[in-house]
Amino acid sequence: MFYRPADGHGLPHNPFNAIVTPRPIGWISTRDAQGRDNIAPYSFFNAVAYVPPQVMFASTGVKDDVDGTKDSIANIRETGVFCVNVVEYAAADAMNKSSATLPHGTDEFAHAGIEKAECGEIACARVGNAPAAFECRMTQIVQIEGAANFVCFGEVIGVHIRDDCLAEGRYDVTRYVPLSRLGYRDYTAVRDVFEIIRPDD
């Protein structure tokens, strides 16, 4: 089949997210100017550069109690920092609970029973038992086409790695099993890993 998104797809459910899979989940923690913590999962997330290390996530949609966006972007605008926490399969339920639409200022760490720890380089909370976490300084927030679509870029200025996720000097995803987003309400767990050597290596 072929369709133009502007004309609609004619299917029972939008296939776009199901095609762009699997997607890593950035569990973004922020703190507002009043010191209130927030955490929410974003599957429009990825690493975008090596030197300096940089990441991005995109926020789509709007909350009624936040001006033109959601809590994460609103908080980052106020403070200029955020933390990206890696989601493991064992944290699937907590991650899902933290995606609930709650009143602005609600602490999703407490709501979802997430272990909280303080970041080292930025004034922000992080998931204390996450396999890894990136402390980030926001470099820019870009509004893209569509209502309330924002892409937030950040430079990674601190990295936390859980000790049991290291094996012989390498970060080993099979030690914790990353959770990834598919389309619709589907997720997958990364358990199988194989290596491909590039022609120039």
CATH class: Mainly Beta
CATH superfamily: Electron Transport, Fmn-binding Protein, Chain A
Largest sheet features: 7 strands, antiparallel
Let me know the average pLDDT. 97
Large-scale geometry? globular
* Poorly predicted tracts of residues: none
Strand-residue fraction?
Answer: 35-45%
**Number of discrete domains:** 1
Distance between the termini: 39 Å
Strand order of the largest sheet: 3-2-6-9-10-5-4
How many strands? 14
CATH topology: Pnp Oxidase, Chain A
CATH architecture designation: Roll
Rg over CA atoms: 17 Å
Briefly note the structural class of the backbone: mainly beta
The assembly state of the depicted protein chains is: single chain
The succession of helices and strands, N to C, reads: HEEEEEHEHHEEEEEEEE
The helix tally amounts to 4
What does this structure look like?
GO terms for molecular function: FMN binding; oxidoreductase activity, acting on the CH-NH group of donors, NAD or NADP as acceptor. It comes from Sulfitobacter undariae. Residues 18-173 form the Flavin reductase like domain. The structure is a single chain. The protein is mainly beta. The protein has one domain: Electron Transport, Fmn-binding Protein, Chain A (Pnp Oxidase, Chain A, Roll), CATH 2.30.110. It is 12% helix and 35% strand. It is built from four helices and 14 strands. It has helices at residues 16-19, 71-79, 92-97, 108-112; strands at 23-24, 26-31, 37-42, 45-49, 54-59, 81-86, 116-118, 125-127, 132-143, 150-161, 166-167, 170-171, 179-181, 187-189. The strands form four sheets. It has a seven-stranded antiparallel beta sheet, with helices on one face. It has a three-stranded antiparallel beta sheet with strand order 1-13-14, with no helix packed on it. The longest helix is centred in the middle third of the chain and has 9 residues, at 71-79.
